[in-house]
TrEMBL record:
SUPFAM superfamilies associated with the record: Insect pheromone/odorant-binding proteins
Top-level taxon in the UniProt lineage: Eukaryota
Record's keyword terms, sorted: Signal
Protein name listed in UniProt: Putative odorant-binding protein 12
Record organism: Anthonomus grandis
Alphabetized CDD domains for the sequence: PBP_GOBP
Pfam families named in the record: PBP_GOBP
GO-annotated molecular function: odorant binding
Signal sequence, start to end: 1-16
């Protein structure tokens, strides 16, 4: 699963005109903060992904997996929770067909969860 795409989708929602409720925004920030502590990813790396700079950084991969698990986008075994992902993406995109297209394009299965996330 390309968790990165889903995390960036959420991050873009935070930084764009897509309205998030104060509760949603607070939850995203809470998850991000907890995952920064767990992964040790630098703030510079996280800021960089918002501008399209995606370093092959093990801490970033760990962060993305942490975020996806904590947000309920993947289960403890790393399996995507497709219906939940599609529902959230559809709410933001306003079109289930677009959400399914993005999901299908981004789904991969690599040797490790961290590699799948990237």
């Amino acid at each position: 699963m390309k968790v990165l795409v889903l995390v960036l989708f959420v991050a873009a929602a935070v930084k764009s005109d897509i309205s998030l409720s104060p509760e949603e925004n607070a939850r995203i920030m809470e998850i991000n903060g907890a995952c920064i502590k767990e992964s040790g990813v630098s703030e510079e790396v996280l800021k960089g992904i918002m501008t399209g700079n995606f370093p092959d950084d093990p801490a970033l991969k760990t962060h993305l997996v942490c975020f996806a698990k904590t947000a309920g986008l993947i289960d403890e075994n790393g399996n995507p929770i497709k219906d939940k992902i599609i529902k959230r993406m559809t709410m933001r995109l306003g079109d289930e067909a677009k959400a399914l297209k993005v999901y299908d394009k981004c789904y991969i299965d690599a040797a490790t969860l961290e590699e799948s996330s990237f």
